[in-house]
Amino acid sequence: MTAFHEVSLPLAFALGASGGPERRVDIVALASGREVRNTPWAHGRRRYDIGGAVRTLDDLHTLTAFFEARRGMLYGFRFRDPFDCKSCAPSRTPTPMDQVIGAGDGATNTFQLSKLYGADDAAYARTIAKPVADSVLIAVDGVLQTSGVSIDATTGVVTFAVAPASDAVISAGFSFDTPVRFDVDALDVSMDAFGAGRALSVRLIEVAI
Choosing a second label site near 32 at 20 to 30 A (CA), which of 42, 158, 172, 198? Predict the structure, then answer.
């Protein structure tokens, strides 16, 4: 199991961060000029650089303490992706109808939070394993559930006390973190002026949970 600490990188380090999803595609060019494309990855992987968010010596102190507590690349942690951290568009407020996460069958009482990207046959369902505690809203057939349902904020698993009826639509809205680890063995920092500092590059990479 991946070594993981259920702690969040301070939100201030998301400001000034750069990065996003990565996909690996193997491409073979044929003699005809056509291409054969395949991917060994079932899921994308996100990479970030938070070096641009470090501006003061206090920022460096906070980042150094967090880096040391994670033992560098050893332990994963939560990161609030500033570009993609909600079940809806960034400017909107999550609602319990944002994402369909399953259908009832009268027996199943656990469902995994997920977020759908795209539509129809090309859509990609991303597992959401690190929802923000107390942000998750669950609905059954469009009705908000205020009791009889619990959410594990460390796995993203939704559990009903009573299994939803057959064909009932289970939907959810939420904010979430991306599980990451440091992708550097050392922090490369500098002091630019009195009270001001910067980190040249502090890379993060998404980890599977």
Answer: 42
